[in-house]
Amino acid sequence: MPLALLALAVGAFGIGTTEFVMMGLLPDVADDLHTSIPSAGHLVSAYALGVVIGAPLLAAVTARMSRRTVLIGLMVLFVVGNTLSAFAPDQHTLLAARFLSGLPHGAFFGVGAVVATGLVAPERRARSVSLMFLGLTIANIAGVPAATLVGQHLGWRAAFLGVGAIGLVAIAALALLIPHDRDHAPATGLRGELAALRSLPVWLALGTTVAGFGALFAAYSYITPMLTDAAGYAAGSVTVLLALFGVGATIGNLVGGRLADYAMRSTLFGGLTSLAVVLALFPVLMRAEWSAALAVVLLGAAAFVTGSPLQLMVMEKAASAPSLASSANQAAFNLANAGGAWIGGLALAAGFGATSPALAGAVLAVLGLAVAATATIVDRRRALPGRERLVAAHVPGRREPARQSG
């Protein structure tokens, strides 16, 4: 695999770290800024809002620019946002800085996926995307725990300075390793990019992302009370268990990337089916500590098997504007984060038990399967007329009607 994929993975590592580290530092931030933890929780929402807005917007307005230049510029914005977060004097300034930090997130993964697939042979495209996403999954194993540890011992501001330093390393890696001669984006312009999003298959692919990853976040958002209230773990053990989720996500990401190169749609269906089954089994798996730990690993693996095929599917359905569509998929991922957490919270608030968010997630995974099946039917129906004409033109023994002379 090209070394340029390493540069993309480093950027993904920094983005994954800053996205999730705030969750572990909320008490420290709330105490330092003299606000409540629920109020400080808006900082998580501010970042997600930045992702949803920035992903399609930045991808669209940079459509005519060199993709290498775009990636470097996005990481510069990432460094600025995290540095401003470190020096924010109050909560309002920190909210704005977190929003700014989220803006380049989706566009980086979107444009990065297009660059990654352009660096390898067609039969290795899914694997190239999975290697970029490897930085994101490893961030859950090493980056987030390390940044949280730094924040707890040196102050939360030091954690964001450290994330900014990772961004600087990513900028240097992108500048050195991303080639100049293979990064030119098609000059479709903003209108051409937006026109590609009018396709029904694109929206069905995005809908699969929202439902499929909504299933993940319906459960993962409430994984701590499941582990403590249902499985009986002490609160201090949760950090290690969340690292196990990162291990599972890394395994699923690598396996999904390899399988998707051979059968993209089958890999997607297999991943969503596995996710539905794992979530449905959560009430049973959360009855003992060992099986609860296994459930966390399986959850990460099943969910991230679908990451690469979903990214490629969206790009293929919007071939004339892959950067915008790929970035829109990252916005869909964050909508899934917010929507899944909300639906899981409804199940919990209704008094259905500590593991009820996982059952709600299983329903969302089945919904994702239904949307994916609909997309398959639409694709086959659109391809059928052309195939029928092709077959009719090559039927053995078939002759065209004789032309009438005179």
UniProtKB/TrEMBL annotation:
Chief location: membrane
Transmembrane residue ranges: 42-63, 70-89, 95-119, 131-150, 156-179, 200-223, 235-255, 267-286, 292-310, 331-352, 358-378
Compartment list: Cell membrane
Domain Major facilitator superfamily (MFS) profile: 4-380
Membrane topology: Multi-pass membrane protein
MF terms in GO: transmembrane transporter activity
Keyword hit for Nucleotidyltransferase: no
Keywords assigned by UniProt, alphabetized: Cell membrane, Membrane, Transmembrane, Transmembrane helix
Pfam family, one: MFS_1
Protein name: MFS transporter
